[in-house]
Amino acid sequence: MKTIFVKPSKVERKWFLIDAADKRLGRVATEVVRLLRGKNRPYYTPHQEIGDYVVIVNADKIEVTGNKAQRKMYYRHSGYPGGIKSETFSDLISRKPTAPLEKAIKGMLPKGPLGRQLFRNVKVYAGPNHPHSAQQPEVLE
Q: HAMAP family, per this entry (predicted)?
């Protein structure tokens, strides 16, 4: 089998709009990563950036099932001894409404330069408004 190489100038990249209100966190994140990586295309190549751009609105209204709102923990470390901080999903979403969805998407992307570049192609907004109307994003359900 031959490896597929697609020139970046030949790739037509679309913009998609996803409304995350009343949807599950993991389900939205997996769909976003599939579009970012370009796995919806017949010429998908794992080492190239051929995916689309994704705009997510209403990220503050995303849901988790069961007791995850109180029990799911997010950790960060300051780098100093004893500097670990933790907070629950509900605390994090009230402090920074886009953070849980961004963390879920970033964790599903490949680690390294390609993953960092792909993460730049997703735009997450807490409310229903976004500044990307000029790109005419296609609405996804």
A: Ribosomal_uL13
Tally DSSP H helices, then E strands, for the chain: 5, 6
What whole-number distance in Å separates Cα of residue 98 and Cα of residue 102? 6
Give the other-Cβ count within 10 Å of 86's Cβ: 11
List the domains of the chain with CATH numbers: 14-63+98-140 (3.90.1180.10)
User: What does the pLDDT read at residue 45?
Assistant: 87
What lies within 8 Å, CB to CB, of 104 at 6+ separation is 25, 26, 29
Give the global pTM. 0.92
**Residue 35 contacts residue 16 (beta carbons within 8 Å):** yes
Looking at every residue in the chain, the average pLDDT score rounds to 95
